[in-house]
Amino acid sequence: MRIYRNLVLVTVTCMSVLTLPTLAGAAPNTISSADANLPGSVSFGSFSALAGVSPLTSGNTCNLSNDLNNVTCFQISGTGTYVSRMYATTNVNAFAIYGHIEISGPNGFFRNTPDANITPSFGIYLNLANLGTMPSGTYCASTWWNLGGGVYDLYSSACNSVHA
Fold first, then answer.
1. Whole-number Å distance between alpha carbons of 106 and 24
2. Torsion over CA of 53, 162, 159 and 15, rounded to 10 degrees?
3. Using an 8 Å Cβ cutoff, are 128 and 103 in contact?
């Protein structure tokens, strides 16, 4: 059984919502990965524009932990409710922790990494591509610090929205 405790967060947020014209029936800006369910390399495809306007779902948020040791960043890219990429990272500055990064959304838990050592020279990331149409709502990337004995602290978290 895992027990999760929440910490109060210091928040530094930068978010943008853009509007781009798109072609009727044209493929959105595409991002591909060898396996959309696992971290992997990403390559960008092409973007086509014509008539009509679709909002670009785009956000990049980074938040610090109370002790300023950890920063969690979360980026969502896509058009409307079509999500082409979610990318979450976690890094530490002064001392190492053992934990994982998790993405959750309006329906709860979505994906996470296994627990790993996160050191000042080695952060971890979760890179998901070609996710398709996703439910509208708030998605968050959270760094969970494994304190042992099945107890986890929410170390820091960053959130963005998917919207039509």
1. 29
2. 0
3. yes
pLDDT tens per residue, range 105-147: 999 999 999 999 999 988 999 999 999 999 999 999 999 999 9
DSSP 82-141: EEEEEEEEEEESSS-EEEEEEEEETTEEEEEPPPEEEBTTB-EEEEEEEEEE--SEEEEE
**Phi, then psi, of 118 in degrees rounded to 5:** -115, 110
Contact 37, 128 (CB under 8 A): yes
Per residue in 30-58, pLDDT (tens digit) is 222 222 333 332 222 222 222 333 455 66
Residue with tokens 């296994």: 114
Cα 78 from chain centroid (whole Å) = 13
CA distance 24 to 116: 44
